[in-house]
Amino acid sequence: MVQTLDKLVSLCKRRGFIFPSSEIYGGFSNTWDYGPLGAELKNNIKRMWWRRFVHGRDDVVGLDGSVIMNPRVWEASGHLENFTDPLVDCKNCKRRFRADHLLDVAGIKPELGTMKHPPKALKECPECGGELTPVRKFNLMFKTFIGPVEAETGVAYLRPETAQTMFVDFKQIMDSMRMKLPFGIAQIGRSFRNEITPGNFIFRTREFEIMEIEYFVREEDWEKYFEHWKTQMERWVHDMGISAKEFEAVEISEDERAHYSKRTVDFEYKYPFGQKELYGLAYRTDFDLRRHAQLSGVELSYLDPETKKKIVPHVIEPTWGVDRSVLAVLCSAYHEEQAPTAEEGETDMRVVLKIPKNLAPYQAAILPLSKKDELKKFAEPIAAELRNSLVIDYDETQSIGRRYRRQDEIGTPYCVTVDFDSLQDKKVTVRDRDTMKQDRIARDQLTKYLKERLHV
Ligand code: GAP
């Protein structure tokens, strides 16, 4: 596991995973772009999720909703009223802080609502010692305007969570897909929150992606399905290459839960900057369907075929942050270890990303020993063949040792070396990223050999 976040940030930039957005203009307010390898890793995570939870189940269907929804959605969901963070400003240096974070740092349990006499931590700026303003509520939703005039009548919001689409489209999906309880609606999409203190690389940003399921159940079954999804999430964390000691499932107390939740378990990961939320699992009761039915006037119920009674389903909501998944995978995958060099008996330090093989940006790299034409002629058709079914890199620059190190650093599970012997025996050398063991494989068996090991 990586020891400091700086090491990971530097690797991500150096190797084209993630870098500051708009960097030629000096960056912009903790925004990040996923480079070629970051985009591959992120897409692999999303693909694995969709494959497992949508295609892999007969009780979940997918959805792709819009970011800007009718503003009444946010009235019904409670976001207009409740989706706030407590905020203080420094009157001197004008810096802005989250009050609950200041209390956290001071070791005080944040119970802001009941705090009559604020402690020193909420009166004095931690940066310059200046006076802080009283605590104010700050709504995290990004506001925008529909149409050319910036008038109150045209106000709309960028969605702060994907969940609401699943509730407002509930009837549409029931009608068109003939779903029977229990069933789920899944979505992967961007969400936007005007976070007061974004930071820690891609951990807290203002624009991020969520993978989310709203799983509709009969009220009496909620505990059973809560446990079901908890197990599914634990399995998922394991399959992301995260060991049991790197995360903890934490029961969230009533005063810390979101306004809609009757039970929440957070999956917290031990990031280099501390143990914090990775994923969440909530029992949202029938809060959302009831509120939308109330405000829209449209009945959002389910006719139970067994009892012939109409019921409002209850909801279990497992939620996975995409960007935090990328961060956790990278943190857990990062290893520094002594490894033999090309020189007999010598070792040096190698950085290797032991990313689960199915998630790695490249599944294999083709490395001809030199740029000579005869090797090219042998290696290029191999690359072309592998490209039909795998994502591969072709690299013929620098020494083979340096190329191995480069592929280790980006987590490529297999390096395929083509040397001058290959021209005679029609075999190639396949090196395993983790064990560094090398196998000599017949050229015509290569695709099969790799696909078997990559499970594709
Ligand atoms: N529908 C429930 C919901 O949105 P949430 O815990 O507020 O729950 C879901 O957010 C997930 O999104 C979190 O578990 C986390 O992984 C991720 N997330 C939340 N805020 C984020 C931010 N500012 N930056 C990056 N990821 C974030």
UniProtKB/TrEMBL annotation:
Keyword set includes Protein biosynthesis: yes
Stored CDD domains: GlyRS-like_core, GlyRS_anticodon
Some GO term, biological process aspect, for this entry: which one? glycyl-tRNA aminoacylation
Q: Where is it found, in Gene Ontology cellular component terms?
A: cytoplasm; extracellular exosome; microvesicle
- Amino acids binding ATP: 193-195, 203-208, 277-278, 321-324
**Alphabetically ordered keywords of this record:** Aminoacyl-tRNA synthetase, ATP-binding, Cytoplasm, Ligase, Nucleotide-binding, Protein biosynthesis
Localization per record: Cytoplasm
Provide the residue positions that the database annotates as binding substrate. Answer: R98, E161, E317, P318, T319, W320, G321
- Kindly list the GO molecular function terms attached to this UniProt entry: ATP binding; bis(5'-nucleosyl)-tetraphosphatase (asymmetrical) activity; glycine-tRNA ligase activity
The UniProt transmembrane annotation reads none
Q: Which InterPro entries match?
A: aa-tRNA-synt_IIb, aa-tRNA-synth_II, aa-tRNA-synth_II/BPL/LPL, Anticodon-bd, Anticodon-bd_dom_sf, Gly-tRNA_synthase/POLG2, Gly_tRNA_ligase_bac, GlyRS-like_core
> EC number(s) on record?
6.1.1.14
Q: What reactions does this protein catalyze? A: tRNA(Gly) + glycine + ATP = glycyl-tRNA(Gly) + AMP + diphosphate
Q: Where is the Aminoacyl-transfer RNA synthetases class-II family profile domain?
A: 6-340
Instruction: State the family named in the UniProt similarity comment for this chain.
Output: Belongs to the class-II aminoacyl-tRNA synthetase family.
Q: How does it assemble?
A: Homodimer.
* Known function: Catalyzes the attachment of glycine to tRNA(Gly).
> HAMAP family of this UniProt entry?
Gly_tRNA_synth_B (MF_00253_B)
Recorded protein name is Glycine--tRNA ligase
- Which source organism? Candidatus Komeilibacteria bacterium RIFCSPHIGHO2_01_FULL_52_14
Mind giving the lineage of the organism this protein is from?
Bacteria, Candidatus Komeiliibacteriota
